[in-house]
Design goal:
Layout: H1 4-41, H2 43-49, H3 53-75, H4 80-101, H5 113-148, H6 168-239, H7 245-276, E1 283-286, H8 288-305, E2 309-315, E3 321-324, H9 325-341, E4 348-356, E5 361-368, H10 400-410, E6 415-420, E7 424-432
Parallel strand pairs: 2-4
Antiparallel strand pairs: 1-3, 4-5, 5-7, 6-7
């Protein structure tokens, strides 16, 4: 019985293998189209080589058909390994015909078998590569044997006279020269591919265990923090009048820190749900301008304490924006609190929202006159635990902007930053006006 974690890792590996096979088909298709173009533009030279253009054209068409059918099969959800086996087997057979019609042992063209074996190594592992290698050497042996017996006429390229019946020993040497490297390549490349695949699976398993442990710890933190906040609230209600100013300040600091911890726990759990695809948006029509006013009012006291001006400049957003009110409110709160955190005294923070009719979306921006963000950090800050390393100052957890990014993207929008060191930053995000499908 397959466990759920093992099933998830298997599905992830299947996705990677499907992408690898799809890339292989694209690469093979480009090579085949390149060969087709060479045939069309070099018909005179092909005639000089005495390579039959009709047969070569049919080989190209057959190879393109295999590539197209393989891509269609992947799109239809056919098992990746089945598609790999069928396509690589057919490619090997098609290549065998190509080897014969391009001169066989008189050219280095049989070395292309190695390319197919390399592809089999990464798609099918060592055993699969060995099977394709054996098929390759057997197919080439069959071609050489049929040419030696005269059943298949030898293609005499460049008009050179080559008699297979008189050069039997050379045919054997030619076959051995191809077979040994082909079989060795299947073993070496196949073993390497299996190690890489195993390493990838181990990394996925380690990441899953780490995420599960983090989720479990964070989830278990919620209850004691909630109990702690309840105790602080009771103290505030019953003993506030008996406290001096210092005690009141300590109590408020403790309550504020508790709210920060609860918010952090919520963000970590929400991010985990979003990553697992289990997070459901509660989409409803929201008056975005009013929501922005509420977020600004909620942070105005903190801005005043830091001697920072916090204002709304413009708000031309439509009255009914389809979004999750609670999540977008948290996005606004995160962006504004970050701006306050990194803006010095007497600085300015402005919030704006503008309806863009041409793209049917609303763009919300939070601008500050703070320290700014170096270019090398401007993408990193949206990653989990990504932070700008600064001397001194207040450091966050590195999760707030990750939450903002994932929330905005869940709504079908984008988030970005424009910043210059020493001149401030502008964080902007877009929300589509079109109703999202639940």
């Amino acid at each position: 019985m397959t466990t759920e974690p093992a099933k998830k890792i298997f599905e992830a590996n299947e996705i990677d293998e499907a992408q690898d096979l799809r890339s292989t088909f694209y690469f093979a298709g480009l090579l085949i189209l390149g060969l087709a173009a060479l045939i069309l533009t070099s018909s005179n030279r092909i005639a000089a080589l005495q390579i039959p253009p009709t047969e070569l054209g049919l080989i190209v068409i057959a190879a393109l058909a295999i590539t197209t059918c393989g891509l269609i099969a992947l799109q239809m959800g056919v098992a990746v390994r089945l598609v790999s086996w069928c396509s690589l087997t057919l490619y090997t057979i098609i290549l065998t015909f190509a080897v014969h019609y391009t001169g066989g042992p008189q050219t280095p063209f049989p070395a292309v078998y190695l390319v197919i074996v390399l592809g089999a190594s990464f798609l099918l592992g060592r055993k699969g590569a060995t099977m394709i290698a054996l098929l390759s050497v057997l197919c080439y042996a069959a071609v050489l044997y049929l040419e030696y017996k005269g059943i298949l006429p030898m293609i005499q390229i460049w008009g050179m006279q080559f008699s297979p019946q008189e050069r039997g020993s050379l045919l054997i040497i030619n076959w051995i020269t191809l077979s040994i490297p082909t079989l060795i390549t299947s073993q070496l490349a196949g073993s390497l591919a299996e190690r890489l695949r195993q390493t990838n699976s181990n990394l996925r398993e380690s990441e899953r265990l780490r995420d599960n442990l983090s989720h479990m710890i964070v989830h278990d933190l919620r209850n004691p923090i909630t109990a702690l906040m309840g105790g602080l609230d009771i103290l505030r209600m019953t003993l506030l009048d008996k406290m001096n100013d210092d005690q009141k300040q300590l109590l408020e600091n403790a309550r504020r820190s508790g709210h920060v911890l609860i918010g952090l726990v919520g963000e970590i759990l929400d991010i985990s749900k979003m990553e697992a695809g289990k997070f459901k948006l509660n989409i409803e029509p929201v008056n975005l301008c009013k929501l922005i006013e509420e977020s600004v009012d909620g942070n105005r006291a903190l801005a005043e304490i830091e001697d920072i001006s916090l204002e709304i400049t413009t708000c031309s957003a439509a009255n009914a924006i389809p979004c999750d009110r609670q999540l977008i409110s948290r996005v606004l709160a995160n962006l504004i609190s970050n701006a306050i955190k990194h803006t010095p005294a007497e600085g300015t923070i402005t919030v704006s929202a503008n309806h863009i009719p041409s793209t049917e979306q609303v763009i919300v921006s939070v601008s500050d006159t703070g320290v700014g963000i170096p270019p090398e950090y401007q993408k990193l800050i949206f990653e989990k635990f990504g932070q700008v390393q600064r001397q001194g100052g207040r450091q966050g957890t590195g999760l707030g902007l990750t939450f903002c990014k994932m929330t905005v993207e869940e709504h079908g929008g984008e988030i970005w930053v424009e910043s210059q060191v020493g001149q401030g930053s502008t964080f902007s995000f877009s929300l589509p006006l079109k109703q999202l499908a639940n």
